[in-house]
Queue: 4 jobs
Job 1
Amino acid sequence: MGIMIDPNELVLNCLHCNPGGIEVTIEREEKALLCEKCLHRQQERRDTIYEIIETEINYGRDLRILKEEFVVPMQTTGLLTSEQLDTVFVNLDDLITINSQLTEKLRAAFHKAAKDCDQKLNLVNIGSLFIESSTMFLAFENYCINQAQASASLEQLERERELLRIFLQVSQAENGRLRRMHLKSFLMVPVQRIMKYPLLLNRLFKATPAHHSDKEDIRQAREKIEDILGHINAKAKGSGSVRIKRKQSELRRCSLMEKIEVNRVALEVLEWSKKDVSDVITSRMWYAQPPDHTWAAKRCRNIKFTPIHAVLLTQGQKRNDNTVLGQQAAVVLVREKNGKYQAVRDPFLLEKSVVTVDPDCDDVFELQEWGREAYIFKAEDPKETITWVQNLRQQTHNLGQWRRRRNALPNIMLKNI
């Protein structure tokens, strides 16, 4: 005859809700009484671990498909040059290495649980594995930032090269490994994967008991990957994160993909090699062309500002002494309309430009290229405006430029002119 248990005592004796609770032996449990809620969480934890392992294996499969079904054939047949392959597939080999290392660790943990008869995977510490691997995820940064440009380059190459277009169409229709997916869909897989990790880890964190040895590691792993995602965002949008009080329909925070598009357009306009380019700051701005030089004294009254994306890029190779060889810097303005991004005007070349701030209107700055019209800008927040001014001045200083303001008009003296 089984032992009769009072349902009200289940939570008191539950080893998860009350780790110091009394172990009792009943017919259907093995010296580990859990309440219904904790049994559900235990199942959720096991299912989440299975999902993490399975989806990482599937992700690795898609990376290998990119390599084996696209890169290798294109390289072997000469459909694309080495430079074009690097543009379209970015750092694919790095991502394959990262996935292989993480997958091996996950499989080893799973096999150890099976060997130890840990069917519920209670002893599998996913959080610690991700902490060990978190630095490897930095390779996602380069891929994510350049993915939009890779997709655009692929589209252009398809238009220009009929054989490439035929190859992709036939592959999609007849290659069973591709599951009728186009190459562009496979190129998005790493972007989708890095965004999935925090969601999986958050679900695992909620399903893991407070006393579990992996609880804190799961939290730290989630935060580390979120930091990496934040760094990817920062590379695209700069440091601005707060909003000014304007109509939400006109002003909203930019997504990562918007930042990627802005940087892609900027690189195309400048015709710079992406390998030597750094994006110093990218964010939403408001700009206008003032009617005269008295805009500051009038505190920008009657001036209509237009929303825009602005990006400050530098180009040059760093030497061992941290100096930059052949450095250039430019500001590019990009406008979005109906999902399409295009440059508004020619870039501001900072070697020929001056940035000034007037005490009468210090939340706005003026940027003028030598011999061309002046424009005034303000960011979504005064602090972000200051960040822009600091970065602009730093770049003009690094380029050997001297400037000052007289009677609200810029006076520029450039070295070696």
Note: The domain at 42-237 is CATH 1.20.900.10 (Dbl Homology Domain; Chain A).
Job 2
Amino acid sequence: MAGEATKPPPGRAPDDLDPARAEGEKVGARIDAAFEKLARKMRARADKAHGKLDAATPAEKRAVLLRRYELYADAAAYLEERLVQRGERST
């Protein structure tokens, strides 16, 4: 009885992944892809706001574009940091 807990279920090879673990890895990969896509989108928006910043002359417009750049850049940095953390946790 003591050794039964370590045996794989019948009908499954010992080197097969646990179905729950396989599903978790599949879902985790989809989450990582979504994080990457959103981070790229936020980074692109930050770059666009930064590019417009040089052409803006009114102080109010520059302030709005600068704040927009900061918010998008912060969001992208947060998402990229979370991706690194998720990668470290899965290895």
Note: Residues 19-55 form the longest helix (37 residues).
Job 3
Amino acid sequence: MAGSEAPDKITPLRPKRPCPECGKPSARAFYPFCSRRCKDIDLNRWLSGAYAIPGPPIEEDEDGRSSE
């Protein structure tokens, strides 16, 4: 009986984590979010520039102009 293992012994591929927006349990369809609403809120923040990844500092000349 190789296929009769109990379902509680199956290890999930991803650990359960709370939604990064509201803290509710995440849903499989919207992982790592709990709903389409929270997923869309996060997407809007990326598209509007609220989230930003800093780049290298811009070097300036002595007169204050950038070297680019």
Note: The mean pLDDT is 82.
Job 4
Amino acid sequence: MKDNVDIHVVLATPEDMGEYHEDPSEAAERLNFILHAMYDHAEEDIETDRLERILHYTWEQWHQNSSLLEIDDDELLDWVDHTLATWDDADNSEFY
């Protein structure tokens, strides 16, 4: 269940992003936008373990991504929706 996942545990801080981005505060905000969107767009009855794996995958895909500050919100939301829709078909085994 989605309610069993505390989204605040996975949110980024500027310290998490400083090594990879010129503006670590903005990068943390962008990553947190994606993480919140992933959580919000997930089905209410999603399995806790599954949502945790998806959030971990999201972190791994974006925290070092140099394009993070260049991609607009709509494109990020499209990525979120695509990831949720294709999770079962994708090979994400390295992230869980």
Note: The chain has one domain: 2-84.
